[in-house]
Every structure is written in C-alpha cells, then in structure tokens.
Amino acid sequence: MKTLKYYFAKAKKEKWAIGQFNFSDWSQVRGILAAAQNLKSPVILGTSEGESKFVGLQEAVAMRNVLRKKTGLPIFLNLDHGKSFEYVKEAMDTGYDMVHFDGSKLPLEENIKISKKVVAYAKRKGIVVEGEVGRIGTDASKLYTEKFQIKEEDLTQVKDAELYVKKTGVDVLAVSVGTFHGMDVTGVSPNLRMDRLREIKNKIELPLVLHGGSGTPDQDIKEAIKLGICKININTETRLAFSNTLRKKLEIDKDEIVPYKYLPEAIEACRQVVEKYIKLFTNKG
Ligand code: 13P
Known about the structure:
Blueprint (H helix, E strand, L loop, with lengths): L3 H11 L3 E5 L3 H14 L3 E6 H7 L1 H15 L3 E8 L2 H10 L3 E4 L6 H18 L2 E6 L9 E2 L13 H11 L3 E4 L7 E2 L9 H10 L4 E3 L7 H9 L2 E6 L1 H17 L6 H4 L1 H18 L4
Helix pairs in contact: 2-12, 5-6, 6-7, 10-12
Bound molecules: 1,3-dihydroxyacetonephosphate.
1,3-dihydroxyacetonephosphate binds next to strand 3, strand 10 and helix 10.
C-alpha cells in the first residue's frame, strides 16, 4: 500500500483533496467505509481527542488494520486536534498514521516549540504531522442559529504561517480561512476567504488542510482545492445525518431493540454524505 505522504503529494500535484471523516462509533465507520469502497478512494478516518478516548486508540488502530486487510483500500488514521505532546505521542506510539497537533490557541512561539517536538518524534516513525496556525474555532457538535462570520484576527496570518512552517518542518498545514467547526442552521456557509488562501498558497509549498468542511458550498470547495487545499475534514454533517436518521427510525419503530435492525439506515445516511464529499473532493462525477 502507498503511504499517506504519497497521497498528499499526488493530491497536491493533481489538485484534489483527501477526505477526512471523523467517527466515534463503529457504525459511522461502516458508512464511511462503504463510500470509500464504492468510489475506490483513499480515505482518512479522524478521531478528535474526545472521539479517540471514547473509541480507544488501540481499538481504532486495530480496526484500521483489519479494514485495510479486508478491503485493500488505503485507509489512514489521524488524531484530529491533539492538544498536548503527551496525547499526540500516545497516538503515534499506538500506530496512528498521522497526527494533527493543534497549538493554534497557544502563543506562536509555544505552538512552534511543541510542534517541533512532535515532528522530531514523528519523523522517526514516518508519521505525517499536521500543524495549525490561525484559529478555526467553534464546536463540531453544534448547529448555529446565526450566520458565522470569522473575525479578521482569527484568520491565518501569512507571516506567522511562513515562520511556523520553516521552524517546525510539519508535513501539512491547517489554515483558518473562514470555515468553522459545526454548521449554521441554513446548512450552507459561504464564508471562505479565497483572498487569504491565495496569499498563503503563494508563500507556502505544503499541502494545506481545510477544517470545518461541513456546510461549505460546493463551488467554494472546488475553488479551495485549486488553491492548494489537499485534505478536507468533515464531521458535523455525517454526525447529523447519522443521528437524525437513527432518531427518526427509533421514533417510528418504537419497539425495535435490535441494533443490527435499526442501525443500517443511519449507516446508509452517513455513507451518502461521505460519498457526496469524496466525489466533490476528487472531481468525480
Ligand atoms: P465540521 O464538523 O464543520 O465538518 O468540521 C470537522 C473538522 O474540521 C474536524 O477537524
């Protein structure tokens, strides 16, 4: 199987993006996997610290191993928004393919210091490191009732990003260019700041990562990929599809208590969201 670094280089060269889909439950993975299998696509399974603590780091790695073996697909595992060196190291020691150290709320110097430590450790194991500069903010479990508008000071500053990349040696960089974690109730959030993304792309060679993908209009996603975005993270939209479908199902079949009978529709709803995004990210019709 080709490495994740290979896929990032390929995505950058060919202008498409790898989807990262977060999960905290095996049923969600089933939905994500079905989409990746249908489209024969590489995929990154993401777990935040909270998600990974619920699933178990070892369990997540074991599951990835089994799924790779069974499907032959390039399936990778990323620790999303690791907040401390200690936890990121634990994920690396357990066998994650990639770690995202999120020091974006720390002063830049501190973010650089810890990121350097993560990179030094990851290099020995060939693990991909995602760094982050600029604040993306908000919460991936919420539906916002007002339109989200990013504050200018939370956008990635090009000079900070340049310094960070130069000093840390991270492999890919998450940027704050107007998206946010979560979705607003209208379901569409056209907030992407292409001007800032273009400025970043002009100065930074690395593959760039877009967080807060849920609810971003298709056109904005296509444009962002042209401007160097090589990985896009989706969580809220799959959570919504899964949970709302499950809720409805249980309301209708009030007496059903067998998980394998009430879960398939929620898994299917998750698959549909993931398939829609993989097609969009890879320019597949
Ligand atoms: P959404 O929940 O907005 O899709 O964002 C997911 C994400 O960026 C995970 O890091």
